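for ur thesis appendix - histidine kinase. copy paste whatever u need, i formatted it the way the template wanted (i think)
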Amino acid sequence: MFLNPNKSILRKMLTSSIVTVLLGLCAVGLVISLFAKEYIVNSKSNEMIRQAKQVNLAIQNQTAPNDGFKEQLHFFDQAFDSRIWIFDMNGNIVTTSSKDEVNIGKVVSTEVVNQVINGEPAKWNQFEGLKEGMLSVAVPWGKDNDVYGGIVLHSPLKGMNETIAQLRETILWVTLLGIFFSFGVSSYLSWSITRPIQQIDKAAAKIAVGDYSERIRIDSRDEIGELATTINHMMEQLERVDQEKRKLNQLRHDFLANVSHELRTPLTAMQGFLEALQDGLIEEGARDQYYEIMYNETLHMNRLVDDITDLMKLENKEIELLWMAVDVQAMLSKLAFKFRPEAEARGTIIHSSMDEDSPQAFADPDRLEQIFNNLIKNAVKFTENGTIELKAMAVPSEECVLITVTDTGIGISPEDQGLIWERFFKVERGRPVKHKGSSGLGLAIVRELVELHNGSIGVRSEMGKGSTFEVRIPLHDSRQHGQPSVSLAIVRTP
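the 3d part is after this line
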């Protein structure tokens, strides 16, 4: 989607600029031409009136034409480049400055005669009887209060018309130059506007098809530059949202795939056992074993559903904690007693270290027990013929209780230590098949619960030597003076 050159802003701006300049210069030229013509005519008329008065000064002592009189008129004709007529009180022309001109006997209009006799100069553009266009003026002929007639000066309009024509030609060339200059400036300005608009149009077209990689590169700091910056920022946001959307879709897809896989295995086993029992392929003495296996598979599916439910509630912030002081050492002792039979069955010793100053954590006791239950269960599962140590101690400088779960199990590889908190992630490298079968949600739930307690969790581990999980939960004493500051870190050493 690009701009149509026939309807583009470039063409509109060029057309409007050129038309505006053309009309403006034409109007200015017309006004200047009219005022210049009037100015030239008035200036020439005033000059001719002064010349006519000079003629009068030369002949005012002569009341009748004679040869010397005509010689003076001829002299002034040559000096002023103007025809000179003399008329009497009746308006009759009595003599002229041109020897060959036959105008004696012609009459000046009564209006002009009356105006001149009254002592006022007269001027007009065309004298009757003259073929050539003339500018004419008339002044009284006489001395003091004695008026003998009038003096008329004629000057051709041809020279003035040529001057005005040259002025109009100059205005025309200036107009053409203005149009050319306007075309150049308008082209540049139009290009500077339409180029970024075309880039914005191109970017918008890519946004429409879901491509947010385009960026508008405009150096100007005007409104269009600000618009381009805003669109670039919008595209970055859309690109980020699109990536997050794809990531969420991938997580959703992986989640459904993992749930389907986790449910398919026990369901397939139960289906096979039920078909065998239904067909009578299982001997009477072996049926109890098959029933026990199916029962354990249903327990596994129930645990998976419970874990998924807990994880979804945690991620949606739907779980509210019941805050109170919790004796962490007492809780660890109870859990050690709970898992001791399972650990001893694997040849593992589990014990908890006791401190005289038993630390009090500010937490939800049920959820805190769920955290340590998952950690200890994992330690027991992946430790054979080893030891598991549970320890809790107060860290007043950090206003927290530090709880560690240390085992001497198979450990976690460095590349897997950052992934163990992901949903359905299972560390299978180097582990025997009998360790498989967990849902992969336990540590994800642990992390969510720890963060819900405003804590942190971390793990330290080395392959073949074991793991140490460190959990920091807010110290109860720190709550006595307001809202606690909690730092939680988890370290695991498999």
